[in-house]
Amino acid sequence: MKKNLNTFWASLIVEELIRNGIEYFCISPGSRSTPLVVAVARNKNARSIVCYDERSCAFHAVGYARATNKPAVVITTSGTAAANLYPAVTEASNDKVPLVILTADRPPELIDTGANQTIDQPKMFGAYTRWQFDLPCPDESIAPEMVLTTVDQAIYRSRYNNAGPVHINCRYRKPLEPDDVSPSDEYLKNIVKWKTNSEPFSVYPESAVSVSNETLDSLVGIIDSSERVMVVVGKLNTDGERQATLGLIKKLNCPVYADLTSGLRLGECDTNLIRYYDLELMSAEFNELAKPSVVIHLGGKTTSKRVGQFFDLNRPEDYVVIKNSPQRYDPVHAVTMQIEADVCEVCRALCDLVKAKSAGEYAKFFDRKAEQATRVIAENIDNEKRMSEPFIAREVSKSLPEGASLFVSNSMPIRDVDLYGAGARANINIAANRGVSGIDGIISSAA
Length: 447
What we know:
Layout (H helix, E strand, L loop, with lengths): L5 H14 L4 E5 L5 H9 L4 E4 L3 H15 L3 E5 L3 H4 L2 H9 L4 E7 L25 E5 L8 H16 L5 E7 L13 H4 L3 H4 L17 H12 L4 E5 L5 H14 L3 E3 L18 H4 L3 H6 L4 E5 L6 H9 L4 E6 L13 E4 L2 H11 L7 H22 L6 H10 L6 E3 L4 H9 L8 E3 L10 H5 L1
Parallel strand pairs: 1-2, 1-3, 3-4, 4-6, 5-6, 7-8, 7-9, 9-10, 10-11, 12-13
Helix pairs in contact: 1-2, 1-6, 3-5, 9-14, 10-14, 16-17
C-alpha cells in the first residue's frame, strides 16, 4: 500500500514559504485543503487567520502585503472557493502587490467527469498571475525537492521586479486527513541538508534593474535645459523611495504633484507641493499658464483623471516615467521615455548630476495659486456647520497624528481626500486599492 504523502508535501510547502520570510497564512478552509491547513497549524512559526468568505480572505491578504511589502499566503479549497479570489488577484496584479495563492484541487482523474466541486483551476487567473504551477498529486515517484524548488520559484516571481500574485494549484487524492508515517530515507536523500538547516532549498538573490549612464546623461540634459519642469509622484512602496524622491524634489526646486498613494500628499513633502491641483485644473486660465515643458514621473500611476486630461491637452515636450516594473503608465499616450529601474537609485543619481535650481516664476505661479485655493477652501469648507463629504475628507486628514495609517476607499472617498485633504505635516501611511479601483474588499484590505 502506498504511503499518503499529502500532509508531508503540504508541510514542505508551508516550511519553505516560512524559510523565505513568508509566515502569514489567510485560510478559507474546506475539505480538500485539509493537508495545507494541517501543515500551517502544525508549524510553530506560521501565523494564520481564518476567513470564511474567500473574497474577503484574499483582500485581507492584499492589505497585509501592502502594509508589509511582502507576500501573504491565501489557502482555499476547490471549486468556486478558488474562483472567489479573482477580484483580489486582479487588484494585486494591477497594483504590483505580492501574493501567494494555494488552491486545493481534485486529482486529474476527477476533472471533467461531473465530479462534485470541480472546475478547471490551472491557469484560472490567466494573465493576472506572474507565474502559475499545477502541482501533481503527491506520489513517491516524484522527488520532494521538486516541491521545494517550485515554492522558491513562485516566491521569486511574486516578489521581485514586476511583483504580483502567483498561483500554485495543489492536487490531492483521498485520504486527506493527516498520515504521520514518515517517508523512507531513500525518498528523503536529496533533502537531508535542507532538513538539518533553516535555509530555503533554492536561493534567488535580488537583482535590481539599473539605468545606464547614457540614459542618465540624456535625462540630465532634458532637466537642465528646461525652466518649466514638473515632478509627478505616483504610488511609492517604501520609505526609502519616499526619502530618495524628497531629495530629488528639493534639488530640482520645481512644482510637484504628489498623488495620494505616494505618501507625500498629506505627509512630509512641503517643498513646492502643488496643493489642490485638481481644483485648480478646473480653471481654463490656470490650464494655459500651468503647462510644463518637462514632466518627470516617479513611481506608480496616479489617482486623478483630471491630471491625465491636463497632460493630454497640454502635452509636454518630454514626459519621462521612472518606475521599477515593465508596466506602462501612459493612459493619454503622452510619455516620451519609459525607464524601468530602481526609483531610489535613479533619484540619488540625478541628485548628484543635475544642476540645483532656484525657485523660478513657474514654481512661484503654483505657490500663489495654492495660497488662493487654500483661502477659498478654508472659507467654504473649514467653517461649514454641517457634515459633507469634502468636510469629512478634510477634517480626517487634518486630524491624523504622526505615524498614522489611513486606508481610503474607492469611488468618491479617494477623490474627496485627493481634492480637499489637508497636509498634516506628518509621516502618514496612505493605502488604497487602486490596481483595479473596485469598491469591494475595502474593509478586508484595511483590516
